[in-house]
């Protein structure tokens, strides 16, 4: 079986123009939008690449006029309609973040045209990101009506600083590749007609380099992102919480109709105006989260254990940084509870306290 045959099952193209350098190419309809099948495979190709002795470097790029326009409307609507798809996509989003970090092979992204959503995750989680000066980069989550959670809250402050990250993520302002380079969001910006040539030049340097030294340096640098695991876990949970909220419906409709979003969620009531019934609903929500959180925590511990066993060189550091993500997951439930009243002392108070203590003891 040839090298490319190993990747022929993927819903995106694979090419090899230099021995050791694999190119993954988004090549689909609607500006390479990420549909359910692409989203299903995208997180796990990095595990395959990591174990492939014939691949030393990866270039990821888009065909046609875009890198990737992000998740398709159909993928978003299916999550809104089916809880099973929602949890599946959430798990895939989580795995994409960690699997790109854990892939020992250096990843180079060549970004042109629109780069949005899951495509933007791949573009910016690459070890070296090269953008065309005219590329259009935007994290569109809040424009859609959900929290920015698939990588941005954890990664953007590390890349371009908290002040710029907050401005760009809260306003959904689109920036060019040239501006992205200026603020440090991407590694470099070049003219579009030199984009692929430059990406291949950089990949060639990495291919000719000391692969073990490069892999270990990447591992060390990516501990910055693993240290942000609690932020990532909480932001991911809050993003998918929003899929069931009111703002995403108007956000999706405005995207389809190519107009400004007009809808807003009902403003939160001041705490003093909330009744005990509101508090009781929140306690019930927190308690209902416990079985799912317990299962998720068990899965997370197994993941941590497998990674520690696989790479004993940094077992204590990896165990510590990844275990901290348990707190981020727990806090995703606590943040929901903070939107409602704090129950007064009494039966409700102790029921809430018991629910929180059970959550906290898991971490």
Question: Topology of this structure?
Answer:
Blueprint: E1 13-18, E2 21-26, H1 29-32, H2 36-41, H3 45-50, E3 57-62, H4 73-81, H5 83-102, E4 107-111, E5 114-115, H6 117-125, E6 128-132, E7 136-137, H7 141-144, H8 152-160, H9 162-171, E8 175-176, H10 177-183, E9 188-190, H11 195-208, H12 211-221, H13 223-227, H14 229-242, H15 247-257, H16 276-310, H17 315-323, H18 325-337, H19 347-361
Parallel strand pairs: 2-3, 3-4, 4-6, 5-7, 6-9
Antiparallel strand pairs: 1-2, 7-8
Helix pairs in contact: 4-5, 5-6, 5-14, 8-9, 8-14, 14-18, 16-17, 16-18, 16-19
Distance between the termini: 46 Å
Q: Output the CATH homologous superfamily of the largest domain.
A: 2-enoyl-CoA Hydratase, Chain A, domain 1
Number of helices: 19
CATH class annotation of the largest domain: Alpha Beta
Name the helix and strand elements from N-terminus to C-terminus, one letter apiece: EEHHHEHHEEHEEHHHEHEHHHHHHHHH
Gyration radius, to the nearest Å?
Answer: 21 Å
Overall, the morphology is: globular
Number of domains: 2
Uncertain residue segments: 312-353
Protein name: Enoyl-CoA hydratase
Family: Belongs to the enoyl-CoA hydratase/isomerase family.
GO molecular function: catalytic activity
Pfam family, one: ECH_1
Give a quick precis of the structure:
It holds the Pfam family ECH_1. This protein is of the alpha/beta class and 363 residues long.
Can you describe what's shown?
The protein is of the alpha/beta class and 363 residues long. It has 2 domains: 4-230, 2-enoyl-CoA Hydratase, Chain A, domain 1, CATH 3.90.226.10; 267-361, no CATH class. The chain is built from 19 helices and 9 strands. It has helices at residues 29-32, 36-41, 45-50, 73-81, 83-102, 117-125, 141-144, 152-160, 162-171, 177-183, 195-208, 211-221, 223-227, 229-242, 247-257, 276-310, 315-323, 325-337, 347-361, and strands at 13-18, 21-26, 57-62, 107-111, 114-115, 128-132, 136-137, 175-176, 188-190. The strands form 2 sheets. Strands 1-2-3-4-6-9 form a 6-stranded mixed beta sheet, with helices on both faces. The chain has a 3-stranded mixed beta sheet with strand order 5-7-8. Strand 1 (13-18) and strand 2 (21-26) form a beta hairpin. It starts with 12 loop residues before the first strand and ends with a helix. Mean pLDDT is 82; it is low at 312-353.
């Amino acid at each position: 079986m040839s090298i490319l045959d190993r990747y022929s099952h993927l819903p995106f193209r694979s090419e090899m123009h230099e021995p050791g350098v694999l190119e993954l190419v988004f090549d689909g309809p609607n500006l390479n939008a990420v549909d359910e099948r692409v989203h299903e495979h995208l997180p796990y190709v990095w595990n395959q690449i990591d174990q492939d002795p014939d691949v030393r470097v990866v270039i990821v790029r888009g065909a046609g006029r875009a890198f990737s326009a992000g998740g398709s409307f159909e993928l978003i609507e299916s999550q809104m309609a089916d809880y099973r798809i929602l949890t599946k996509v959430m798990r895939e989003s989580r795995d994409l973040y960690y699997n790109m970090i854990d892939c020992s092979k250096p990843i180079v992204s060549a970004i042109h045209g629109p780069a949005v959503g899951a495509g933007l995750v791949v573009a910016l989680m690459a070890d070296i990101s090269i953008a065309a000066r005219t590329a259009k980069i935007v994290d569109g989550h809040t424009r859609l009506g959900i929290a920015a959670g698939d990588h941005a809250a954890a990664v953007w402050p590390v890349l371009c600083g908290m002040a710029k990250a907050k401005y760009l993520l809260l306003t959904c302002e689109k920036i060019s590749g040239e501006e992205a380079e200026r603020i440090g969001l991407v590694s470099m910006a070049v003219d579009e007609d030199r984009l692929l040539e430059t990406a291949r030049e950089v990949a060639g340097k990495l291919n000719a380099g000391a692969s073990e030294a490069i892999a270990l340096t990447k591992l060390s640098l990516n501990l910055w992102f693993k240290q942000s695991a609690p932020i990532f876990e909480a932001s991911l949970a809050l993003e998918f919480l929003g899929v069931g909220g009111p703002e995403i419906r108007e956000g999706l409709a405005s995207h389809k109709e190519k107009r400004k979003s007009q809808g807003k969620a009902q403003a939160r009531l001041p705490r003093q105006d909330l009744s005990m019934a509101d508090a009781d609903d929140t306690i019930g929500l927190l308690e209902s989260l416990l079985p799912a959180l317990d299962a998720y925590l068990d899965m997370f511990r197994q993941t941590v254990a497998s990674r520690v066993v696989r790479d004993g060189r940094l077992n204590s550091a990896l165990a510590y940084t990844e275990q901290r993500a348990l707190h981020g997951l727990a806090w995703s439930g606590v943040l929901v509870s903070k939107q409602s009243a704090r129950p007064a002392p009494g039966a409700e108070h102790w029921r809430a306290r018991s629910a929180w203590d059970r959550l906290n003891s898991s971490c």
